[in-house]
Amino acid sequence: VSNWYQNNAPITALPIDDRAIHYGDGLFETVAIRAGEPRLWDLHMQRLRQGCARLGLPAPDEITLRNSLNFAVENSEIDASYALAKLIVSAGSAPRGYRRAEDAGGDPLIGVFAATPLPADLYKNGAITRQCATRLADQPQLAGLKTLNRLEQVLGRSEWQEPEIFEGLMCDSDDHIICGTMSNVFAINKQTISTPDLSRNGVAGVMRRHIIESLGRSGVTVTETRLSPQEVQDADALFLSNSQFGVIPVRQFGEHQYPGTAMHQQVADILLTSGIAEHGQ
Amino acid sequence: VSNWYQNNAPITALPIDDRAIHYGDGLFETVAIRAGEPRLWDLHMQRLRQGCARLGLPAPDEITLRNSLNFAVENSEIDASYALAKLIVSAGSAPRGYRRAEDAGGDPLIGVFAATPLPADLYKNGAITRQCATRLADQPQLAGLKTLNRLEQVLGRSEWQEPEIFEGLMCDSDDHIICGTMSNVFAINKQTISTPDLSRNGVAGVMRRHIIESLGRSGVTVTETRLSPQEVQDADALFLSNSQFGVIPVRQFGEHQYPGTAMHQQVADILLTSGIAEHGQ
Predict the structure, then answer these.
(1) ipTM score here?
(2) What is the CB neighbour count within 10 angstroms for residue B95?
(3) For labelling alongside A21, which of A127, A208, A238, B214 has CA 20 to 30 A away?
(4) Over the stretch A149-189, which tens digit does the pLDDT of each residue have?
(5) Closest by alpha carbon to A118, among A162, A161, A167?
(6) Rounded Cα gap, residues A263 and A238, in angstroms
(7) Distance between CA A155 and CA A136 in Å, rounded?
(8) Are B52 and B87 in contact (CB under 8 A)?
(9) CA angle A115, A87, B6 (to 5 degrees)
(10) Distance (Å, rounded) from C-alpha B21 to C-alpha A109?
(11) Partner-chain contact A16 B21, CB within 8 Å
(12) Residue A2: beta bridge partners?
Protein backbone atom coordinates (compact mmCIF):
# COMPACT_ATOMS: atom_id res chain seq x y z
CA VAL A 1 0.00 0.00 0.00
CA SER A 2 1.28 3.44 -0.84
CA ASN A 3 -0.18 6.88 -1.22
CA TRP A 4 1.30 9.72 -3.18
CA TYR A 5 0.59 13.42 -2.85
CA GLN A 6 1.59 16.63 -4.54
CA ASN A 7 0.47 20.04 -3.29
CA ASN A 8 -1.65 18.31 -0.67
CA ALA A 9 -3.64 16.45 -3.31
CA PRO A 10 -3.49 12.71 -3.99
CA ILE A 11 -1.81 11.71 -7.25
CA THR A 12 -1.41 8.38 -8.97
CA ALA A 13 0.71 9.40 -11.94
CA LEU A 14 3.34 11.88 -13.11
CA PRO A 15 2.90 13.97 -16.29
CA ILE A 16 4.72 12.19 -19.10
CA ASP A 17 6.91 15.23 -19.82
CA ASP A 18 8.42 15.26 -16.32
CA ARG A 19 12.21 15.31 -16.34
CA ALA A 20 12.37 12.68 -13.60
CA ILE A 21 11.13 10.19 -16.20
CA HIS A 22 13.33 11.26 -19.08
CA TYR A 23 16.62 12.10 -17.40
CA GLY A 24 16.36 11.26 -13.72
CA ASP A 25 16.70 15.01 -13.27
CA GLY A 26 16.01 15.27 -9.57
CA LEU A 27 16.65 13.99 -6.06
CA PHE A 28 14.89 11.98 -3.42
CA GLU A 29 14.88 11.33 0.31
CA THR A 30 13.56 8.27 2.10
CA VAL A 31 12.41 9.35 5.53
CA ALA A 32 11.56 7.03 8.40
CA ILE A 33 8.20 7.86 10.01
CA ARG A 34 8.06 6.84 13.66
CA ALA A 35 5.02 7.62 15.83
CA GLY A 36 3.76 9.85 13.02
CA GLU A 37 6.91 11.99 12.94
CA PRO A 38 9.76 12.07 10.43
CA ARG A 39 13.08 10.91 11.88
CA LEU A 40 16.29 12.88 11.23
CA TRP A 41 14.27 15.49 9.34
CA ASP A 42 16.95 18.18 9.60
CA LEU A 43 19.60 15.91 8.13
CA HIS A 44 17.29 14.94 5.28
CA MET A 45 16.60 18.60 4.56
CA GLN A 46 20.27 19.45 4.70
CA ARG A 47 21.15 16.78 2.14
CA LEU A 48 18.24 17.77 -0.07
CA ARG A 49 19.31 21.41 0.06
CA GLN A 50 22.90 20.52 -0.83
CA GLY A 51 21.68 18.26 -3.61
CA CYS A 52 19.48 20.96 -5.12
CA ALA A 53 22.36 23.41 -4.98
CA ARG A 54 24.68 20.97 -6.73
CA LEU A 55 22.15 20.08 -9.41
CA GLY A 56 21.19 23.71 -9.90
CA LEU A 57 17.56 23.13 -8.90
CA PRO A 58 15.58 25.42 -6.59
CA ALA A 59 15.39 23.88 -3.12
CA PRO A 60 11.83 23.36 -1.90
CA ASP A 61 10.59 25.53 0.93
CA GLU A 62 11.20 23.37 3.97
CA ILE A 63 8.26 24.55 6.06
CA THR A 64 5.87 23.93 3.18
CA LEU A 65 7.47 20.57 2.57
CA ARG A 66 7.15 19.60 6.21
CA ASN A 67 3.51 20.65 6.22
CA SER A 68 2.93 18.66 3.05
CA LEU A 69 4.60 15.65 4.62
CA ASN A 70 2.37 15.96 7.66
CA PHE A 71 -0.68 16.25 5.41
CA ALA A 72 0.36 13.16 3.45
CA VAL A 73 1.07 11.12 6.56
CA GLU A 74 -2.24 12.11 8.16
CA ASN A 75 -4.33 11.60 5.04
CA SER A 76 -2.85 8.38 3.78
CA GLU A 77 -4.26 5.02 4.76
CA ILE A 78 -0.85 4.01 6.07
CA ASP A 79 -0.29 3.30 9.76
CA ALA A 80 1.99 6.19 10.65
CA SER A 81 3.26 4.66 13.85
CA TYR A 82 5.90 2.88 11.78
CA ALA A 83 6.06 3.94 8.15
CA LEU A 84 8.23 5.47 5.48
CA ALA A 85 7.92 8.58 3.35
CA LYS A 86 9.64 9.11 0.04
CA LEU A 87 10.15 12.70 -1.09
CA ILE A 88 10.98 13.37 -4.72
CA VAL A 89 12.16 16.74 -5.98
CA SER A 90 12.13 16.70 -9.77
CA ALA A 91 13.14 19.35 -12.29
CA GLY A 92 9.51 19.05 -13.34
CA SER A 93 7.67 19.21 -16.63
CA ALA A 94 9.59 20.60 -19.56
CA PRO A 95 9.91 20.42 -23.34
CA ARG A 96 12.12 17.65 -24.72
CA GLY A 97 15.89 18.12 -24.51
CA TYR A 98 18.62 18.18 -21.89
CA ARG A 99 18.33 21.91 -21.45
CA ARG A 100 16.31 22.91 -18.42
CA ALA A 101 13.67 25.62 -18.48
CA GLU A 102 14.63 28.72 -16.54
CA ASP A 103 11.85 27.98 -14.07
CA ALA A 104 12.84 24.31 -13.69
CA GLY A 105 11.70 22.61 -10.52
CA GLY A 106 8.39 20.98 -9.79
CA ASP A 107 6.45 20.72 -6.57
CA PRO A 108 7.78 17.87 -4.42
CA LEU A 109 6.09 14.48 -4.61
CA ILE A 110 5.45 12.73 -1.32
CA GLY A 111 4.77 9.02 -1.08
CA VAL A 112 3.80 7.33 2.17
CA PHE A 113 4.52 3.63 2.43
CA ALA A 114 3.69 0.94 4.94
CA ALA A 115 6.76 -0.42 6.70
CA THR A 116 7.53 -3.18 9.16
CA PRO A 117 10.58 -3.49 11.38
CA LEU A 118 13.22 -5.92 10.16
CA PRO A 119 13.37 -9.25 11.98
CA ALA A 120 15.04 -8.97 15.39
CA ASP A 121 17.42 -11.73 14.33
CA LEU A 122 19.13 -9.36 11.91
CA TYR A 123 19.79 -6.84 14.66
CA LYS A 124 20.96 -9.52 17.04
CA ASN A 125 22.86 -11.99 14.90
CA GLY A 126 23.81 -9.81 11.97
CA ALA A 127 23.24 -9.77 8.24
CA ILE A 128 24.78 -11.74 5.41
CA THR A 129 26.37 -9.58 2.73
CA ARG A 130 28.14 -10.14 -0.56
CA GLN A 131 30.38 -8.15 -2.86
CA CYS A 132 28.75 -6.83 -6.03
CA ALA A 133 30.47 -7.03 -9.40
CA THR A 134 28.78 -3.80 -10.49
CA ARG A 135 31.05 -0.82 -9.87
CA LEU A 136 30.24 2.69 -8.75
CA ALA A 137 31.67 5.19 -11.21
CA ASP A 138 33.77 8.10 -9.96
CA GLN A 139 31.60 11.18 -10.34
CA PRO A 140 32.56 13.85 -7.79
CA GLN A 141 29.84 16.22 -9.02
CA LEU A 142 27.10 13.82 -7.96
CA ALA A 143 28.95 11.95 -5.20
CA GLY A 144 27.04 11.67 -1.94
CA LEU A 145 23.74 12.79 -3.43
CA LYS A 146 20.58 10.74 -3.65
CA THR A 147 19.78 11.62 -7.24
CA LEU A 148 17.17 9.89 -9.36
CA ASN A 149 19.98 8.33 -11.44
CA ARG A 150 20.26 5.01 -9.64
CA LEU A 151 21.01 2.43 -12.30
CA GLU A 152 24.23 1.37 -10.59
CA GLN A 153 22.32 0.44 -7.45
CA VAL A 154 19.64 -1.32 -9.52
CA LEU A 155 22.29 -3.37 -11.33
CA GLY A 156 24.08 -4.11 -8.06
CA ARG A 157 20.85 -5.29 -6.45
CA SER A 158 19.99 -7.44 -9.47
CA GLU A 159 23.09 -9.59 -8.94
CA TRP A 160 21.53 -11.84 -6.32
CA GLN A 161 18.16 -13.39 -5.62
CA GLU A 162 18.97 -15.36 -2.46
CA PRO A 163 16.61 -14.05 0.23
CA GLU A 164 19.14 -14.78 2.98
CA ILE A 165 21.55 -12.19 1.51
CA PHE A 166 20.60 -8.87 3.01
CA GLU A 167 22.91 -6.51 1.17
CA GLY A 168 25.57 -6.25 -1.53
CA LEU A 169 28.63 -4.06 -1.04
CA MET A 170 29.77 -2.10 -4.06
CA CYS A 171 33.31 -1.12 -5.06
CA ASP A 172 34.59 1.77 -7.12
CA SER A 173 36.80 1.17 -10.15
CA ASP A 174 39.89 1.12 -7.89
CA ASP A 175 38.57 -1.80 -5.86
CA HIS A 176 37.58 0.13 -2.78
CA ILE A 177 34.34 -0.60 -0.98
CA ILE A 178 32.10 2.47 -1.14
CA CYS A 179 28.53 1.61 -0.12
CA GLY A 180 25.95 -1.09 0.05
CA THR A 181 23.25 -0.86 -2.60
CA MET A 182 20.93 0.72 -0.01
CA SER A 183 23.17 1.30 3.00
CA ASN A 184 26.44 2.72 4.23
CA VAL A 185 29.22 0.64 5.74
CA PHE A 186 31.28 1.05 8.91
CA ALA A 187 34.26 -1.07 9.89
CA ILE A 188 35.48 -1.43 13.47
CA ASN A 189 39.11 -2.27 14.16
CA LYS A 190 40.20 -2.24 17.78
CA GLN A 191 39.75 1.43 18.75
CA THR A 192 39.14 2.67 15.22
CA ILE A 193 35.85 3.12 13.41
CA SER A 194 36.09 3.89 9.72
CA THR A 195 33.69 4.34 6.84
CA PRO A 196 34.37 4.82 3.13
CA ASP A 197 35.10 8.31 1.90
CA LEU A 198 32.25 9.42 -0.38
CA SER A 199 33.83 12.34 -2.18
CA ARG A 200 33.94 10.54 -5.53
CA ASN A 201 30.84 8.32 -5.49
CA GLY A 202 28.26 6.68 -3.28
CA VAL A 203 25.32 8.02 -1.32
CA ALA A 204 26.01 9.86 1.92
CA GLY A 205 23.20 8.48 4.05
CA VAL A 206 21.58 10.64 6.70
CA MET A 207 21.96 7.76 9.16
CA ARG A 208 25.68 7.59 8.33
CA ARG A 209 25.91 11.28 9.07
CA HIS A 210 23.93 10.90 12.28
CA ILE A 211 26.21 8.09 13.43
CA ILE A 212 29.36 10.07 12.68
CA GLU A 213 27.99 13.09 14.54
CA SER A 214 26.61 11.12 17.49
CA LEU A 215 29.86 9.21 17.95
CA GLY A 216 31.81 12.44 17.55
CA ARG A 217 29.84 14.08 20.37
CA SER A 218 30.81 11.09 22.53
CA GLY A 219 34.46 11.49 21.69
CA VAL A 220 34.64 8.69 19.13
CA THR A 221 36.03 9.82 15.79
CA VAL A 222 34.91 8.02 12.65
CA THR A 223 37.58 8.11 9.98
CA GLU A 224 36.40 8.62 6.41
CA THR A 225 38.90 6.72 4.35
CA ARG A 226 39.45 4.21 1.56
CA LEU A 227 38.68 0.61 2.45
CA SER A 228 39.65 -2.36 0.31
CA PRO A 229 37.50 -5.51 0.38
CA GLN A 230 40.41 -7.16 2.23
CA GLU A 231 40.38 -4.46 4.90
CA VAL A 232 36.63 -4.80 5.23
CA GLN A 233 37.06 -8.53 5.62
CA ASP A 234 39.84 -8.13 8.17
CA ALA A 235 37.78 -5.79 10.36
CA ASP A 236 36.88 -6.91 13.87
CA ALA A 237 33.29 -6.03 13.10
CA LEU A 238 31.26 -4.47 10.32
CA PHE A 239 27.94 -2.73 10.41
CA LEU A 240 25.50 -1.20 7.96
CA SER A 241 23.40 1.92 8.35
CA ASN A 242 20.37 3.28 6.58
CA SER A 243 17.60 5.72 7.38
CA GLN A 244 14.99 2.99 7.82
CA PHE A 245 16.68 0.19 9.73
CA GLY A 246 19.15 2.33 11.63
CA VAL A 247 22.12 0.07 12.26
CA ILE A 248 22.59 -3.64 11.64
CA PRO A 249 25.74 -5.67 12.32
CA VAL A 250 27.21 -7.83 9.56
CA ARG A 251 27.99 -11.42 10.34
CA GLN A 252 29.16 -12.50 6.91
CA PHE A 253 30.75 -10.82 3.88
CA GLY A 254 31.03 -13.26 0.99
CA GLU A 255 32.60 -16.37 2.50
CA HIS A 256 34.09 -14.50 5.41
CA GLN A 257 32.48 -14.77 8.84
CA TYR A 258 33.16 -12.04 11.37
CA PRO A 259 34.46 -13.20 14.75
CA GLY A 260 31.65 -11.53 16.66
CA THR A 261 28.30 -10.36 15.43
CA ALA A 262 27.63 -8.06 18.38
CA MET A 263 28.25 -4.48 17.51
CA HIS A 264 31.07 -2.74 19.28
CA GLN A 265 29.37 -2.00 22.59
CA GLN A 266 30.26 1.67 22.65
CA VAL A 267 28.70 2.23 19.22
CA ALA A 268 25.58 0.37 20.21
CA ASP A 269 25.22 2.32 23.45
CA ILE A 270 25.64 5.68 21.79
CA LEU A 271 23.10 4.91 19.08
CA LEU A 272 20.68 3.65 21.66
CA THR A 273 21.10 6.86 23.63
CA SER A 274 20.49 8.95 20.52
CA GLY A 275 17.18 7.17 20.11
CA ILE A 276 18.08 5.52 16.81
CA ALA A 277 18.97 1.95 17.56
CA GLU A 278 16.07 -0.31 16.68
CA HIS A 279 15.96 -3.94 17.61
CA GLY A 280 13.46 -5.34 15.19
CA GLN A 281 10.37 -7.35 15.78
CA VAL B 1 3.14 19.80 -29.38
CA SER B 2 3.70 16.18 -28.45
CA ASN B 3 1.66 13.05 -28.27
CA TRP B 4 2.42 9.99 -26.20
CA TYR B 5 1.12 6.47 -26.61
CA GLN B 6 1.40 3.14 -24.87
CA ASN B 7 -0.17 -0.02 -26.25
CA ASN B 8 -1.71 2.04 -29.06
CA ALA B 9 -3.58 4.22 -26.59
CA PRO B 10 -2.85 7.88 -25.86
CA ILE B 11 -1.35 8.60 -22.46
CA THR B 12 -0.54 11.82 -20.68
CA ALA B 13 1.08 10.47 -17.52
CA LEU B 14 3.10 7.59 -16.14
CA PRO B 15 2.02 5.63 -13.03
CA ILE B 16 3.84 7.09 -10.04
CA ASP B 17 5.40 3.73 -9.16
CA ASP B 18 7.21 3.41 -12.50
CA ARG B 19 10.91 2.71 -12.11
CA ALA B 20 11.78 5.24 -14.81
CA ILE B 21 10.74 7.94 -12.32
CA HIS B 22 12.46 6.52 -9.26
CA TYR B 23 15.69 5.11 -10.62
CA GLY B 24 15.92 5.95 -14.31
CA ASP B 25 15.65 2.20 -14.74
CA GLY B 26 15.29 2.04 -18.50
CA LEU B 27 16.46 3.15 -21.91
CA PHE B 28 15.34 5.42 -24.70
CA GLU B 29 15.79 6.03 -28.39
CA THR B 30 15.20 9.25 -30.28
CA VAL B 31 14.20 8.37 -33.82
CA ALA B 32 14.04 10.78 -36.73
CA ILE B 33 10.77 10.53 -38.67
CA ARG B 34 11.13 11.53 -42.29
CA ALA B 35 8.22 11.26 -44.74
CA GLY B 36 6.34 9.31 -42.10
CA GLU B 37 9.05 6.66 -41.74
CA PRO B 38 11.60 6.12 -38.97
CA ARG B 39 15.19 6.65 -40.09
CA LEU B 40 17.93 4.17 -39.15
CA TRP B 41 15.32 1.96 -37.48
CA ASP B 42 17.50 -1.16 -37.52
CA LEU B 43 20.36 0.63 -35.79
CA HIS B 44 17.99 2.01 -33.16
CA MET B 45 16.61 -1.47 -32.53
CA GLN B 46 20.09 -2.94 -32.34
CA ARG B 47 21.18 -0.44 -29.69
CA LEU B 48 17.94 -0.88 -27.77
CA ARG B 49 18.36 -4.66 -27.83
CA GLN B 50 21.94 -4.41 -26.59
CA GLY B 51 20.89 -1.96 -23.91
CA CYS B 52 18.12 -4.21 -22.65
CA ALA B 53 20.54 -7.13 -22.52
CA ARG B 54 23.08 -5.11 -20.54
CA LEU B 55 20.48 -3.77 -18.12
CA GLY B 56 18.86 -7.18 -17.76
CA LEU B 57 15.51 -5.99 -19.09
CA PRO B 58 13.39 -7.93 -21.58
CA ALA B 59 13.79 -6.41 -25.04
CA PRO B 60 10.51 -5.28 -26.59
CA ASP B 61 9.18 -7.23 -29.54
CA GLU B 62 10.45 -5.23 -32.49
CA ILE B 63 7.57 -5.89 -34.85
CA THR B 64 5.06 -4.85 -32.21
CA LEU B 65 7.16 -1.79 -31.43
CA ARG B 66 7.34 -0.81 -35.07
CA ASN B 67 3.59 -1.23 -35.43
CA SER B 68 3.07 0.86 -32.32
CA LEU B 69 5.37 3.52 -33.70
CA ASN B 70 3.41 3.58 -36.94
CA PHE B 71 0.18 3.84 -34.99
CA ALA B 72 1.54 6.72 -32.92
CA VAL B 73 2.88 8.59 -35.93
CA GLU B 74 -0.38 8.17 -37.85
CA ASN B 75 -2.64 9.05 -34.93
CA SER B 76 -0.75 11.99 -33.50
CA GLU B 77 -1.47 15.53 -34.59
CA ILE B 78 2.17 15.93 -35.55
CA ASP B 79 3.20 16.49 -39.16
CA ALA B 80 5.01 13.24 -39.87
CA SER B 81 6.83 14.51 -42.93
CA TYR B 82 9.53 15.81 -40.59
CA ALA B 83 9.16 14.77 -36.98
CA LEU B 84 10.77 12.90 -34.12
CA ALA B 85 9.72 9.92 -32.06
CA LYS B 86 11.01 9.14 -28.61
CA LEU B 87 10.78 5.51 -27.48
CA ILE B 88 11.13 4.73 -23.79
CA VAL B 89 11.60 1.22 -22.44
CA SER B 90 11.21 1.30 -18.66
CA ALA B 91 11.50 -1.47 -16.10
CA GLY B 92 7.88 -0.52 -15.39
CA SER B 93 5.76 -0.35 -12.28
CA ALA B 94 7.12 -2.03 -9.18
CA PRO B 95 7.10 -1.87 -5.41
CA ARG B 96 9.63 0.49 -3.80
CA GLY B 97 13.26 -0.62 -3.64
CA TYR B 98 16.16 -1.19 -6.01
CA ARG B 99 15.28 -4.82 -6.50
CA ARG B 100 13.42 -5.47 -9.73
CA ALA B 101 10.35 -7.69 -9.93
CA GLU B 102 10.93 -10.92 -11.80
CA ASP B 103 8.57 -9.74 -14.52
CA ALA B 104 10.22 -6.31 -14.77
CA GLY B 105 9.70 -4.46 -18.01
CA GLY B 106 6.80 -2.28 -19.04
CA ASP B 107 5.26 -1.70 -22.43
CA PRO B 108 7.26 0.87 -24.41
CA LEU B 109 6.17 4.49 -24.36
CA ILE B 110 6.16 6.29 -27.69
CA GLY B 111 6.15 10.06 -27.96
CA VAL B 112 5.81 11.87 -31.28
CA PHE B 113 7.18 15.40 -31.43
CA ALA B 114 7.07 18.16 -33.98
CA ALA B 115 10.47 18.96 -35.43
CA THR B 116 11.92 21.52 -37.77
CA PRO B 117 15.17 21.29 -39.71
CA LEU B 118 18.07 23.22 -38.24
CA PRO B 119 18.97 26.46 -40.02
CA ALA B 120 20.88 25.88 -43.26
CA ASP B 121 23.58 28.20 -41.95
CA LEU B 122 24.63 25.59 -39.39
CA TYR B 123 25.10 22.96 -42.08
CA LYS B 124 26.94 25.36 -44.33
CA ASN B 125 29.04 27.48 -41.99
CA GLY B 126 29.30 25.21 -39.01
CA ALA B 127 28.38 25.29 -35.35
CA ILE B 128 29.97 27.00 -32.38
CA THR B 129 30.89 24.63 -29.57
CA ARG B 130 32.43 24.89 -26.11
CA GLN B 131 34.05 22.56 -23.63
CA CYS B 132 31.93 21.56 -20.64
CA ALA B 133 33.32 21.50 -17.12
CA THR B 134 31.00 18.60 -16.21
CA ARG B 135 32.79 15.29 -16.65
CA LEU B 136 31.47 11.95 -17.87
CA ALA B 137 32.21 9.26 -15.30
CA ASP B 138 33.90 6.01 -16.37
CA GLN B 139 31.20 3.36 -16.23
CA PRO B 140 31.93 0.54 -18.71
CA GLN B 141 28.73 -1.30 -17.75
CA LEU B 142 26.55 1.52 -19.04
CA ALA B 143 28.95 3.02 -21.61
CA GLY B 144 27.45 3.60 -25.03
CA LEU B 145 23.87 3.08 -23.85
CA LYS B 146 21.11 5.66 -23.92
CA THR B 147 19.83 4.96 -20.43
CA LEU B 148 17.35 7.13 -18.56
CA ASN B 149 20.21 8.19 -16.20
CA ARG B 150 21.21 11.40 -17.95
CA LEU B 151 22.14 13.84 -15.20
CA GLU B 152 25.64 14.31 -16.59
CA GLN B 153 24.22 15.53 -19.90
CA VAL B 154 21.71 17.74 -18.07
CA LEU B 155 24.49 19.32 -16.00
CA GLY B 156 26.68 19.71 -19.09
CA ARG B 157 23.86 21.41 -20.97
CA SER B 158 23.11 23.70 -18.03
CA GLU B 159 26.56 25.28 -18.25
CA TRP B 160 25.69 27.75 -20.98
CA GLN B 161 22.72 29.86 -21.99
CA GLU B 162 24.15 31.63 -25.04
CA PRO B 163 21.86 30.72 -27.95
CA GLU B 164 24.73 30.97 -30.45
CA ILE B 165 26.50 28.02 -28.78
CA PHE B 166 25.15 24.90 -30.40
CA GLU B 167 26.83 22.20 -28.36
CA GLY B 168 29.14 21.50 -25.43
CA LEU B 169 31.81 18.81 -25.65
CA MET B 170 32.29 16.72 -22.54
CA CYS B 171 35.50 15.14 -21.22
CA ASP B 172 36.06 12.10 -19.07
CA SER B 173 38.04 12.33 -15.84
CA ASP B 174 41.28 11.84 -17.80
CA ASP B 175 40.68 14.93 -19.92
CA HIS B 176 39.68 13.16 -23.09
CA ILE B 177 36.80 14.43 -25.19
CA ILE B 178 34.06 11.79 -25.28
CA CYS B 179 30.80 13.24 -26.61
CA GLY B 180 28.77 16.34 -27.00
CA THR B 181 25.83 16.61 -24.62
CA MET B 182 23.53 15.43 -27.44
CA SER B 183 25.91 14.46 -30.22
CA ASN B 184 28.99 12.47 -31.16
CA VAL B 185 32.20 14.05 -32.38
CA PHE B 186 34.45 13.25 -35.34
CA ALA B 187 37.84 14.82 -36.02
CA ILE B 188 39.43 14.91 -39.47
CA ASN B 189 43.18 15.12 -39.80
CA LYS B 190 44.61 14.87 -43.29
CA GLN B 191 43.63 11.35 -44.33
CA THR B 192 42.48 10.24 -40.89
CA ILE B 193 39.01 10.37 -39.40
CA SER B 194 38.76 9.61 -35.73
CA THR B 195 36.05 9.60 -33.08
CA PRO B 196 36.28 9.04 -29.32
CA ASP B 197 36.28 5.49 -28.06
CA LEU B 198 33.07 4.91 -26.06
CA SER B 199 33.93 1.77 -24.15
CA ARG B 200 34.04 3.56 -20.79
CA ASN B 201 31.40 6.28 -21.11
CA GLY B 202 29.35 8.33 -23.54
CA VAL B 203 26.43 7.50 -25.77
CA ALA B 204 27.10 5.53 -28.95
CA GLY B 205 24.78 7.37 -31.32
CA VAL B 206 23.09 5.49 -34.13
CA MET B 207 24.18 8.25 -36.52
CA ARG B 208 27.77 7.79 -35.34
CA ARG B 209 27.45 4.10 -36.10
CA HIS B 210 25.86 4.78 -39.47
CA ILE B 211 28.69 7.15 -40.38
CA ILE B 212 31.37 4.66 -39.34
CA GLU B 213 29.67 1.91 -41.35
CA SER B 214 28.95 4.05 -44.39
CA LEU B 215 32.49 5.36 -44.53
CA GLY B 216 33.81 1.86 -43.98
CA ARG B 217 31.87 0.57 -46.96
CA SER B 218 33.55 3.30 -49.03
CA GLY B 219 36.98 2.27 -47.84
CA VAL B 220 37.38 5.04 -45.25
CA THR B 221 38.24 3.73 -41.80
CA VAL B 222 37.15 5.72 -38.78
CA THR B 223 39.52 5.20 -35.86
CA GLU B 224 37.92 4.92 -32.43
CA THR B 225 40.51 6.37 -30.13
CA ARG B 226 41.21 8.78 -27.28
CA LEU B 227 41.17 12.46 -28.21
CA SER B 228 42.43 15.23 -25.96
CA PRO B 229 40.87 18.70 -26.21
CA GLN B 230 44.17 19.81 -27.76
CA GLU B 231 43.95 17.14 -30.44
CA VAL B 232 40.35 18.10 -31.12
CA GLN B 233 41.46 21.71 -31.44
CA ASP B 234 44.36 20.82 -33.72
CA ALA B 235 42.15 18.85 -36.11
CA ASP B 236 41.79 20.07 -39.68
CA ALA B 237 38.05 19.83 -39.27
CA LEU B 238 35.53 18.68 -36.71
CA PHE B 239 31.97 17.54 -37.13
CA LEU B 240 29.09 16.47 -34.92
CA SER B 241 26.54 13.76 -35.55
CA ASN B 242 23.15 12.97 -34.10
CA SER B 243 20.10 11.03 -35.14
CA GLN B 244 18.06 14.16 -35.80
CA PHE B 245 20.37 16.62 -37.51
CA GLY B 246 22.61 14.07 -39.20
CA VAL B 247 25.97 15.77 -39.52
CA ILE B 248 27.01 19.35 -38.85
CA PRO B 249 30.52 20.80 -39.20
CA VAL B 250 32.06 22.69 -36.31
CA ARG B 251 33.52 26.08 -36.97
CA GLN B 252 34.52 26.99 -33.44
CA PHE B 253 35.51 25.08 -30.28
CA GLY B 254 35.94 27.46 -27.36
CA GLU B 255 38.14 30.23 -28.69
CA HIS B 256 39.57 28.11 -31.47
CA GLN B 257 38.35 28.61 -35.03
CA TYR B 258 38.80 25.81 -37.52
CA PRO B 259 40.61 26.67 -40.74
CA GLY B 260 37.72 25.54 -42.93
CA THR B 261 34.11 24.96 -42.02
CA ALA B 262 33.34 22.79 -45.03
CA MET B 263 33.24 19.16 -44.12
CA HIS B 264 35.85 16.91 -45.65
CA GLN B 265 34.34 16.46 -49.10
CA GLN B 266 34.58 12.69 -49.10
CA VAL B 267 32.65 12.44 -45.85
CA ALA B 268 30.00 14.80 -47.07
CA ASP B 269 29.61 12.93 -50.35
CA ILE B 270 29.31 9.55 -48.70
CA LEU B 271 26.70 10.76 -46.25
CA LEU B 272 24.76 12.41 -49.02
CA THR B 273 24.82 9.16 -50.99
CA SER B 274 23.57 7.24 -47.96
CA GLY B 275 20.59 9.57 -47.83
CA ILE B 276 21.46 11.06 -44.47
CA ALA B 277 23.02 14.43 -45.07
CA GLU B 278 20.49 17.15 -44.49
CA HIS B 279 21.09 20.73 -45.38
CA GLY B 280 18.66 22.55 -43.17
CA GLN B 281 16.03 25.09 -44.00
Answers:
(1) 0.96
(2) 9
(3) A208
(4) 999 999 999 999 999 999 999 999 999 999 999 999 999 98
(5) A167
(6) 8
(7) 10
(8) no
(9) 95
(10) 11
(11) no
(12) A113
> Any residues with CB less than 8 A from the CB of B10 and at least 6 apart, and which?
B3, B4, B75
How far is C-alpha A127 from the geometric centre of its chain's CA atoms? 17
Maximum Cα–Cα distance for chain A, whole Å? 56
Query: Between chains, do A24 and B181 touch, taking CB under 8 Å as contact?
Result: no
Exposure string over A192-221, b if 16+ CB within 10 A, otherwise e? ebbbbbbebbbbbbbbbbbbbebbeeeebe
**pLDDT tens digits, one per residue of A207-220:** 999 999 999 988 88
Is the confidence at residue A271, as pLDDT, over 90?
Answer: no
User: Which residues lie closer than 8 Å to A75 by C-beta, 6 or more apart?
Assistant: A3, A5, A10
Nearest to B214 by CA among B237, B247, B190: B247
Characterise A91 by phi-psi region: left (phi > 0), alpha (psi -120 to 50), beta (else). alpha
Find all residues with CB under 8 Å of A104, minimum gap 6, and list them: A19, A25, A57, A58, A91, A92, A94
For chain B, first and last CA: distance in Å?
20
Handedness of CA A124, A125, A126, A128 (dihedral sign): negative
The number of angstroms, rounded, from the C-alpha of A253 to the middle of its chain's C-alpha atoms is 20
Contacts of B22 in chain A (CB under 8 A): 28, 88, 148, 150
Interface with chain B: mutation pick from A113, A151, A157, highest number of B CBs within 10 Å: A151
Do the beta carbons of residue A41 and residue A87 sit within 8 Å? no
Measured in degrees and rounded to the nearest 5, phi and psi for residue A160 equal -140, 150
Count CB neighbours of B109 within 10 A: 24
Residue type, B50: Q
Q: Which chain A residues are Cβ-neighbours of B94 within 8 angstroms? A: none
d(CA B222, CA B271): 14
**In which band, very low, low, confident or very high, does the pLDDT at A230 lie, cut at 50, 70 and 90?**
very high
Close Cβ partners of B12 (under 8 Å, ≥ 6 residues apart): A15, A16, B4
Helices A265-273 and A206-217 sit at what angle, rounded to 10 degrees? 100
The shortest C-alpha distance from A28 to chain B (Å) reads 8
d(CA A88, CA A110): 7
